[in-house]
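Milestone 3.1: sequence recovery, worked example.
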């Protein structure tokens, strides 16, 4: 096995997918950033959720907003629903794992807040349940998925924003998700701080 060739191929595939996705995703990413800024300007908050790597992405995104991205600014109201192990395990134990995010959304989410729902396949049951809970609370939803969007596509409402990476590989989709989250952070800062 030639590891150098394999590593080079991973770099090439990742770069190619990012460039291939740029035109399709730029519009939804811009719309999502504008929706998030509307929320933040109205003293709302962004709740983020996902499983595994998508849980890490949720935490990464919330950290960039709460602390800062690349420019100095006041912290922005964002939190990942993936970080409180006591809450998540109590919900999973008392009810079921499918409700670990939806119960938090029902308790913490308010009208016009934003739920950032991340699922590489678009089929994560607990993320889908969170979307339903967000709609019940009058929240906006920004969904990050891949492949064909899975069941997430059916769960979203007309006013929601769906950023679906046109790829099959979980690793490649997650790499574009990370770039998307950085694009959102940058666009939010530009809209709030007036940076061109």
């Amino acid at each position: 096995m030639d590891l150098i060739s394999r590593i080079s191929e991973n770099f090439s595939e990742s770069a190619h997918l990012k460039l291939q996705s740029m035109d399709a995703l730029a519009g939804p990413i811009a719309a999502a950033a504008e929706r998030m800024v509307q929320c933040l300007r109205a003293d709302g908050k962004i709740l983020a959720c996902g499983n595994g790597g998508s849980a890490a992405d949720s935490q990464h995104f919330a950290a960039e907003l709460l602390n800062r991205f690349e420019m100095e600014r006041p912290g922005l109201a964002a939190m990942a629903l993936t970080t409180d192990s006591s809450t998540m395990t109590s919900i999973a134990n008392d009810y079921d794992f499918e409700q670990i995010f939806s119960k938090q959304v029902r308790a913490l989410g308010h009208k016009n807040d934003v739920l950032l729902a991340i699922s590489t396949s678009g089929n994560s049951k607990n993320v889908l349940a969170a979307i339903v809970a967000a709609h019940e609370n009058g929240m906006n939803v920004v969904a990050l998925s891949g492949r064909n969007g899975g069941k997430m596509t059916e769960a979203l409402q007309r006013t929601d924003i769906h950023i679906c990476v046109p790829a099959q590989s979980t690793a490649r989709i997650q790499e574009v998700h990370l770039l998307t989250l950085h694009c959102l952070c940058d666009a939010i800062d530009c809209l709030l701080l007036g940076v061109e």
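The chain has one domain: 3-193. The chain has a mean pLDDT of 97.
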